[in-house]
Amino acid sequence: MYKKVMVVDDNQIDLYVAEISLKRNSFAAEVVIKNSAIAALEYLESAADTPEELPQLIFLDINMPEINGFEFLEAFQHLPSSIHNVCVIMMLSSSIDPEDYKKAEENRFVKRFLNKPLVKEKLKELLLELEYGS
Amino acid sequence: MVENNIGLQLLTAPFRLEVKKRSDKIINYFLLTYFLLGFVLAYFYDTWLVAFGIGSLSLLAYYSVKLILPASNLYQYVLSVVLGTFMAQFIYQMHGLFEMHFTAFIGSAILITYQNWKLQIPMLIVVIAHHSVFSYLQNTGVDGIYFTQLDFLDLQTFVIHIILAGVIFFICGLWAYQLKKYSETHIMQTVEMAKLQKEALLSIERKRNEEALEKSNSELRKSNAELDKFVYSVSHDLRAPLTSMLGIIDISEEVTEDPFINKNLGFLKSSIKKLDVFIADILHYSRNSRLEVVKEQVDFRQLTNEVMDKFKFMCRKTPAIKVDIDIIEDSPFVCDKQRLVIVFNNLISNAIRYHSPVAESPFINISVHSKPEEVFISVKDNGIGVKKELQEKIFNMFYRISPNSEGSGLGLYIVKETIEKLNGRIEIESELGTGTEFKILIPNVQLN
To answer: What does the alpha-carbon distance between residue B321 and residue B351 come to, in Å, rounded to a whole number?
Structure first.
């Protein structure tokens, strides 16, 4: 189980589903919900010096107003390396655009591209994979 | 060479006609003048009958041949003879006045206008014949013969006279010949020039067309790319609420044991998934028909692994479906990877969806064999199969085998359209209750 997981999405329903799903499936002890990329970046920056406050995993939506997922990744790159060392990013989107897959795959901070919704089978699978993988 | 000559003849034909017309016109005036000159000369020695008789006979000969054979050049040769005859007439009329011999040179010079050296020959013959005969006759003392005012023309003088005349005729013939050559060269150059000019104009126009084509192509590419983006964002916006719903259903299913609610949630879920598949199908269809075929090297192992990743959850349901992937890559294969993914996705999801509920060990065998010319792909299952009489229809748009089918009726249609876009073909082999095999052949588009 992860100690802390962050979900970045502008859609309230998806945030709600993700929070419940992550908690109920014992995926994460604590879920940080951020409804915009800016709020998420601000949170990460403020926690840069306190690694225990940083989420180990970030579920990142792509299509968001103001700053979208890829722009978030761009900004994430310029964050302190203490953040890079802790946070692993998973793209979580309902996009089926191969361009989006490609872009996500090419980014060194992105572990995987996941399609919504974040259902329990997917979470179980992910938990197994990430634990064995790391 | 012969071809060249014919080409030259054709090219210079209009010009030669022009020369002929112009020269004929000059000759008309010239002959009239000569004819009238006869009457002027008749005044001196009272040779009216000669002036009228020989003059009109000459004109008659010339104009009659010209009238009867207008297409032939014969009348020009007749003219040559006529000019010689006039010379003889004038010499006679002036009783051998030496200066009248110059009329031969005038005639020879005027013939240059036709640009045909051969025209000099008849006149030369007439002059030689006339000189020989008349000189001989006068020397032997025949009465009424006037050739020279000298009492006696010795052989040496006669020979020099003839040689000089010959040189004049030769030079005039040479000028005629050179004039003709010069004109031809000039025409050839003009024609070449016109050709070059035309080519230059054509190439300018071609370039302009190419630029216009390139411009409209790039505009088309741009609008295609924009449309592509639009289609994707529409599909995303349509899918987003569906995925939210699926998420809600997923978290709701976990907390209820009520079979009624669970059943209803299941129905909801399958309806949403159906709509989701339909959106994806429409997206793929629109992309396939619109977008150009991309050429890239395809790694079938990686491709099938990526595709199978998506179906992991589906295959794990009971009974577990065993998936076997057998890949032989004899040659690098170049094709449109994204399109191949669509083909595999559809065939595999069909194989999973229509697996046999009664088969003991359901399986899907995927085999790929790539060769330099083509790739052979087979997706085989032991699922429910398709009735023989329905096999033809399954590739049709919106065709569904049973009303209970989960699909949109677009899947296999898209598969067929996509394969056709790649210049390949697909066949189905199936037996009801035994299983289905889709066999595909796609040509290898080697990278150039």
So the answer is: 10
Do the chains contact at A115 and B280, CB–CB below 8 Å? no
B163-190 confidence digits (pLDDT tens): 988 999 999 999 999 998 998 888 888 8
pLDDT, tens digit, 9 for 90 and up, residues A54-65: 999 999 999 898
**In this structure, what DSSP letter does residue B415 have?**
H
The nearest alpha carbon in chain B to A12 belongs to B244
Give the span between the Cα atoms of B344 and B367, in whole angstroms: 11
B272-296: pLDDT as tens digits: 988 888 888 888 888 777 777 888 8
Across the interface, whether the CB atoms of B232 and A20 are under 8 A apart is answered no
Percent of chain A with pLDDT over 70: 97
Domains of chain A with bracketed CATH? 2-133 (3.40.50.2300)
Q: Which residue in chain A is spatially nearest to B244 when comparing CA positions?
A: A14
Chain B residues with beta carbon closer than 8 angstroms to that of A125: 312-313
Distance CA A14, CA A5 (A): 15
Distances (CA, A) of B129 to A120, B81, B121, B160, B373: 127, 11, 12, 15, 87
Is the per-residue pLDDT at B353 higher than 90? no
- By 3-state DSSP, what share of chain A in percent is helix, strand and coil, each rounded to 5? 50, 20, 30
CA–CA gap between residue B334 and residue B243 (Å, rounded): 35
| B293-448 to CATH, choices 3.40.50.2300, 3.40.50.300, 3.30.70.3270, 3.30.565.10 | 3.30.565.10
Give the minimum alpha-carbon distance from B198 to chain A in angstroms, rounded to a whole number. 49
Distance from CA of B206 to the nearest CA of A (A): 37
Question: Which one of B236, B282, B317 would you mutate to disrupt binding with A, by most A Cβ within 10 Å of its Cβ?
Answer: B236
* Tokens describing residue B432: 């009801």
